[in-house]
Design brief:
Length: about 130
């Protein structure tokens, strides 16, 4: 019934002993992505936002929901592609995003410590959110 609390990056081996038996596990803690850095590098615009606590990054290709077939901010689509690449996400994710229809609703995939959610509407464009687990 022990609890492990990470206090920083690194690895350690934890050994538990009870009733004359013991077992060990190695725990590795890695820092998550710096969403503010990704925002500054690829977004820095009204179509993107990040959590001040570093917990998420959101990109909206049409933040004002203009009736323009979802193409209000083409640079936002480019940013999504670059963010996916920098986070080491599979190229199939961008393909899945591009094949999402309005009828599909919100989609979600988890990759390691990051959950990516997205939705698409033909008039409102693509909305993507990256969150730390």
């Amino acid at each position: 019934d022990g609890k492990i609390i990470a206090t920083g990056e690194g690895s350690c081996t934890i050994t538990a002993t009870a009733g004359g038996k013991s077992d060990s596990v190695t725990v590795t803690v890695k820092a998550g992505p710096d969403f503010q850095e990704l925002y500054n590098k690829y977004c820095k615009s009204t179509w993107a936002d990040y959590g001040s606590d570093g917990s998420y990054l959101s990109v909206d290709t049409n933040p004002y929901d203009w009736d323009d077939d979802g193409l209000a901010y083409p640079a936002a689509y480019t940013a999504i592609s670059k963010i996916n690449t920098e986070l080491g996400l599979p190229s199939s994710l961008l393909k899945d995003m591009g094949q999402t229809t309005g009828a599909d609703g919100r989609q979600s995939e988890t990759f390691g410590g990051i959950t990516v959610t997205w939705k698409y509407h033909p008039d409102k464009g693509l909305e993507v959110s990256y969150k730390l687990n």
